[in-house]
Every structure is written in C-alpha cells, then in structure tokens.
Design a protein that fits this description.
heterodimer, A: mainly alpha, B: five-stranded mixed beta sheet, two-stranded antiparallel sheet
Chain lengths: 200, 236
C-alpha cells in the first residue's frame, strides 16, 4: 500500500519528510502545551483511574483540542451518550467544512490512508495541509501523511505527559477548568475578528 | 466500577463517532467528485460556528465560580490579550493562571454556610427540580469539589435527603451517588424524609454537638479520630 511512494526518489522523500517536520514545528509548541493542559485537567477533574491511558485514547481517537477539554466534565459526571453526542456536534461542527477543500486533493487515495487523513483533520493540521504547495498529487499526499503523523504524535505526547504529571505531581488544580473557557473565548475572539474583517 | 469504565469508554466512543462522522461528511456527500464548498454551506458554517461557541462559553461558565466577579475578570483578560497579542497559547495560560491565583488567594468563596451530613438533617437534598445544598440549588458535578473544599473526609457517610415527590424516580440520585463514589466519597446513603425525622440522635452525636456549640471555631477544633458532623466553609 505504501509501496506507491517508492516511485518518489529517496532524496525527495527525505526532503518531503524534512519539510513536513519543519513546517509542523509551530504546531509542536502549541499541541504539546495544550495537550499537556488537557492531560492535567483529565487527571485531576476527570474522575477516572489510570488517567494516562484515557488521555492516550482520547488524544489518539478524537485529535480535537477543544473536545479533549470538553469531554472531561462529561466523563466526571457520567453524562448520557446523547448529551455527549450533542456536545461533540456543537463543538466539532466546523470539521464538516474542512473536508470540502480536500476533496480534490485526496481523490482516489487508498482507503486506509484516507481514513487516517480524515480521522486527524483538526484545525492546525488542516491549515498545514492547505499551506502545502507541492503540486504532484502523490508527493502532496506523502507530505500530508507525514504532517498528520507528526501533529497527532505531538498531541498524544503532550496529553499523556500532562496526565502523568497531573496524577503524579501535586499540581494546584483549583480553577484549572478555566483553561477550557479560555480556549472557547480565544476561538470566539478570532471568529469575531474574521467576521468583522469580512462583513464590517 | 466495571460499569463506570464501560460508560466512560462509551462516552469517548460516541465523541469519536460524531467527530469522525463530521470530518468525513464532505467525502461521503461528494464521493468521487472533486469540488469546492458550496457557498451556501460555507456561509452557514461561518455564521453558525460563532453562535455555537458563544453558547459553549455560557455553558462552561456555569462550571466556574460564576456568582463571583473573578471568572469574568479572567475572561476579559483572555479576550484583551487575544486581540492584542494574537497568541492563543499566551492568552489561555495567562487567563487560567490569573483565575487560579484569584481563587486560591481566597477571593472567591463557597458561601454554602455550614454543611451538615448526618441522617437527621442532611444538607444535601435531592428534589424534583435538582440537587440542593442547604437552600441553594447546585450543579451536582460541583458537589465533590465543594465537599473537598469543606475538608469532608472521603470515608464520611454522606446522607442525601430525598424529597417525597422524587422518591419514585431515584435514577438521578443514584447517578449522583456514582459521581460521589467516582471522586472518592464511596459511602453515600439516600434518606427519605420519614426516615430522617424518625432518626434518633445517638449519645455520641449529641455530645459532639454540645461540644461544638462551645468550641470557638468548630472547623479547627474538631479532634481527629472523632466523627465530625458539621462542616464550615473556608470563608467563614
């Protein structure tokens, strides 16, 4: 399945790998720190035993920063599945729009690769995919795969180390739930700025 | 416990299913056809998502100490920083640290008065309208942290008074007990009004009560090892 990529010369594959890594460095900063905060929050407020394992599962499955925060109170309160579904729908609705700009680019790629790419189509990762200027579809896909793998790795790394720190160290936790509100406020502020730029 | 793990796993699975469903929606709708977002969909998205986020902000404030000014001060700080510096990470970390400092500096307090947990006059009540501590309605998810802030030990038996009209549907009350157990308070008990009124106070309890009337500050005076009945908030 990955054999297709052997059509690309080795030095070019390496160049794409390096380019994907360098471009993802800002995300490394953002994802590890935000993931760390989400991990700490889960370990101190999630009310679960073995928080690092849950952090890993949540980070790898959801690949969604906002949702990693929002799921913590839902877990602590044993919220109903319906309420969780509604919450997720509200928070992640924007993801339904991202795929539209990838339709042409990711046309006809093997289903497992497509699954992985779609599964991890989060905000920053999507932005990096869009910013990629490689025209050749095969090389572009390889770049996207590297990019997604790096970014998911950063997110998982940050989350798991955060929840390990949160369960092992006496991190002051009172009021840490404000991080989620702050995240929403930041998203809202940016949306408003964009809105007024277009309409105002 | 096993059920809890299953439910938590279910929550994660549901969140994943919805997230993945949303992400793959365009690929399912336009399978095989490469094209751009229809402008109507794009417009709908750009309007609906700030509305959703605004709703989430209001909703998530309810989990904070929203009766005090501090979460709003921290919130304004976040917005101002974000407009000024455009650094999401900086805004979030600064806002959260300021909020945590304000809270731990004692600016925000739990004003639930004294909490009584014995069977005769339990402060925690389950009524058809929701859960109360004393006379005030409270988000049940916040109760464990309130108990912790009152220094209630986790091995304390916690009586929850069930109002007569709510006796038929105990499901929320049981979920609440599960939530308490989740946070270490494994010994919670539901009490009906009849049972609470017929409760005869033991000698030990009466002695303790008498002792507490004389003690200048019951919160600090309670000797370790003895059963503490009344809990005072840190703000008193």
């Amino acid at each position: 399945m990955l054999r297709q990529f052997l059509q690309i010369a080795q030095f070019e594959r390496r160049a794409i790998l390096r380019r994907a890594f360098v471009n993802s460095l800002p995300v490394l900063m953002g994802y590890t720190t935000m993931g760390f905060a989400a991990g700490v929050l889960l370990s101190v407020k999630g009310g679960v035993s073995c928080a690092p394992a849950w952090s890993f599962v949540i980070a790898a499955m959801l690949v969604s920063g906002t949702m990693s925060f929002a799921i913590v109170p839902a877990m602590a309160a044993s919220e109903s599945f319906f309420a969780v579904a509604l919450l997720t729908l509200g928070i992640n609705f924007r993801y339904a729009l991202y795929g539209f700009s990838m339709l042409a680019k990711w046309k006809g790629i093997p289903v497992v690769q497509k699954w992985f790419l779609v599964h991890s189509l989060a905000d920053e990762i999507y932005a990096l995919d869009l910013a990629c200027t490689i025209k050749d579809p095969l090389k572009n896909r390889l770049y996207c795969l590297f990019n997604h793998a790096f970014c998911v790795g950063y997110w998982v790394l940050g989350s798991v180390s955060g929840s390990i720190a949160g369960s092992a160290l006496p991190i002051p936790s009172r009021g840490i739930e404000f991080a989620m509100v702050a995240l929403f406020l930041v998203i809202f502020t940016d949306q408003m700025k964009g809105f007024f730029r277009h309409h105002g | 416990m096993a059920e809890d793990v299953l439910h938590t796993a279910g929550i994660v699975a549901v969140a994943w299913a919805v997230t993945f469903g949303l992400r793959s929606l365009p690929f399912l709708l336009f399978a095989g056809r490469g094209r751009d977002v229809p402008p109507s969909v794009e417009r709908f998205g750009s309007i609906i998502s700030p509305v959703i986020i605004a709703g989430l902000i209001v909703y998530s404030y309810s989990a904070l100490e929203w009766r005090t000014a501090w979460p709003y001060i921290a919130g304004v700080l976040v917005v101002v920083l974000q407009v000024w510096r455009r650094n999401a990470l900086l805004s979030i970390i600064a806002g959260t640290v300021v909020y945590m400092c304000l809270l731990s500096a004692g600016c925000a307090s739990n004003d639930y008065g004294d909490i009584v947990l014995d069977a005769a006059h339990p402060s925690i009540r389950y009524s058809a309208q929701g859960f109360l501590i004393g006379e005030r309605y409270v988000d049940p998810r916040r109760v464990p942290s309130i108990l912790k802030s009152y220094d209630v030990p986790t091995d304390r038996v916690i009586h929850i008074l069930v109002d007569e009209e709510s006796e038929r549907d105990l499901k929320p009350a049981r979920a609440f007990m599960g939530l308490l157990a989740h946070n270490g308070y494994r010994r919670s008990v539901l009490v009906t009004k009849k049972r609470a009124e017929s409760h005869v106070r033991t000698e030990e309890e009466m002695a303790l009560e008498r002792q507490q009337h004389h003690a200048p500050s019951p919160r600090h005076a309670s000797p370790s090892g003895k059963r503490q009945i009344r809990y005072k908030g840190a703000s008193d």
